[in-house]
Amino acid sequence: SDSQFPVPLSPAEVDWSEHFPSFFSKVPGAGLEGPNQEKSNNEGGEASKPKAGMRDVVVVGTDGQPPPAVRFADIGCGFGGLLVKLSPMFPDTLMVGMELRDKVTEYVKERIAALRVQNPGRFDNISVIRTNAMKYLPNYFRKGQLTKMFFLFPDPHFKEKNHRRRIVNQGLLAEYAYVMKEGGLLYTVTDVEELGDWMKRNLDAHPLFERLSDEEVANDNVAVLLKNVTEEGQKVERNEGQTFHAVHRRIRAEPLA
Ligand code: SAM
């Protein structure tokens, strides 16, 4: 069902090596804590108990460096078209899709697994997580971690009383700003004009985001793809629908006067 999936207590608890095995090595940790095994506050609490042997193994990057971090998140990734497109463009960047629907997530998992089998050494940098991104982003990402966030064709929630359920809203923008790095880019695309206006208005009004100029957007090699790179975008294109898009940059907070 859509109501049950595991949620990590904090980003330190996510084992990304399961998602991106070729980017990680497991080395003996001599019982010491590894760089990615920060202590959680409730040490000793039932939920935070380390798995047996966890500290005997440290997960590091393949060159013995600290483990790499996910930098791009596709929120409500649907069938994963964006991840598949971006993977070869940024082969060294880890990216993850977040999707609420179980069956759709399973499809994306299988799609990525098949791509990896058919193309050895490729598509190792993309993965998918089934979760409610409106609730659990800070459980997965640290402050300032993400350099790109994507919201492509989010559900419109047309009725006024449902606008609070929209995935780009004032409250959640604070959370997105938190997980984004300064200078990082947040991309929104929709075929619903009213929703496009709404997302733009909310982002424009937020003190931690500024909108890129049309010229900057035209020069952004990712922004120019977004109209028809996903399954939803292709559907809109087939129906000759219009799309409305914006790119906003995460900026530094103005010091209080
Ligand atoms: N971005 C994809 C595309 O362009 O093809 C999918 C667009 S589809 C209209 C919106 C997707 O967002 C759906 O797959 C839906 O399950 C997902 N979604 C809605 N709310 C979500 C949430 N809170 N967390 C994660 N995914 C969500």
UniProtKB/TrEMBL annotation:
One of its GO terms (molecular function) is tRNA binding. S-adenosyl-L-methionine binds at residues 76, 99-100, 132-133, 152, 230-232. Its main location: nucleus. Keywords: Methyltransferase, Nucleus, RNA-binding, S-adenosyl-L-methionine, Transferase, tRNA processing, tRNA-binding. It is an enzyme of class 2 (transferase). Transmembrane segments: none annotated. It comes from the Eukaryota. Its EC number is 2.1.1.33. Signal peptide: none annotated. It catalyses: guanosine(46) in tRNA + S-adenosyl-L-methionine = N(7)-methylguanosine(46) in tRNA + S-adenosyl-L-homocysteine. Residues 27-52 are annotated as: Disordered. One of its GO terms (cellular component) is nucleus. The active site is at 155. Pathway: tRNA modification; N(7)-methylguanine-tRNA biosynthesis. It is found in: Nucleus. Catalyzes the formation of N(7)-methylguanine at position 46 (m7G46) in tRNA. Belongs to the class I-like SAM-binding methyltransferase superfamily. TrmB family. This is tRNA (guanine-N(7)-)-methyltransferase.
